[in-house]
Amino acid sequence: MKKVILKETIESLGIIGSEVTVADGYARNYLLPQDKAVLATPANRRVLEQEKSKFELQIAKEKGIAEEMAKRLEGVSCKVAAKVSHEDRLYGSVSLRDVLDALEKEGVKLDKQMLLLSEPLKTIGTFKVPVRVYKDVETEITVEVVPE
Q1: Domain boundary among 18, 33, 68
Q2: Burial label, 36 (beta-carbon count in 10 A; 0-12, 13-18, 19+)
Q3: Whether 50 and 16 share a structural domain
Q4: Which CATH number goes with the domain that contains 134?
Q5: What is the pLDDT of residue 58?
């Protein structure tokens, strides 16, 4: 395990400027060569302290953009057509991919990590699906499952 300091925000690890512990191979093969992090050495910590205000500005900027995006997503809804039996039961279910495709048809492009759909939708109806835009910024979209 290696301690590294992040030079940019990585969703699964942390925000820019934070010190995290990662597997040796992840640091050696991905984070360090792509300049996404530096080793957490005393010299790099001193440099980090000097650049802390720049990092805080970057965090504030990212969070501001995320809050703006969350406001735009607040009223978004989409319809997903699914095959149903004569009893209005779904054949299969509506997955994360189906919801993302329906949103894209509405002109909304999201990453699959942003949608917090815990399990596929298995019934017809209207559902609220949470969306995590940034670390502490969440909103909800409406997904309506209709018969095809």
Answers
A1: 68
A2: middle
A3: yes
A4: 3.10.430.100
A5: 79
Per the structure block, which two tokens stand in for 107? 């002109």
131, 141 in Cβ contact below 8 A? yes
Q: Are 146 and 81 in contact (CB under 8 A)?
A: yes
What secondary structure, in 3-state letters, does 42-66 show? HHHHHHHHHHHHHHHHHHHHHHHHH
40-89 pLDDT tens trace: 999 988 888 787 777 778 778 888 888 888 888 887 888 888 888 877 77
Among residues 64, 59, 69, the alpha carbon closest in space to that of 7 is found at: 59
Per the prediction, the chain carries an average pLDDT of 85
Last residue of a domain, one of 48, 68, 88: 68
Same domain? For 85 and 124 the reply is yes
Q: Domains in the chain: how many in total?
A: 2
Domain of 54 in residue numbering reads as 2-68
Q: Are 125 and 79 in contact, with CB atoms under 8 Å apart?
A: no
Exposed / middle / buried, residue 43 (Cβ in 10 Å: 0-12, 13-18, 19+): exposed
Over residues 111-126, the pLDDT tens digits come to 888 888 888 888 888 8
**Rounded to whole angstroms, how far apart are CA atoms 94 and 92?**
7
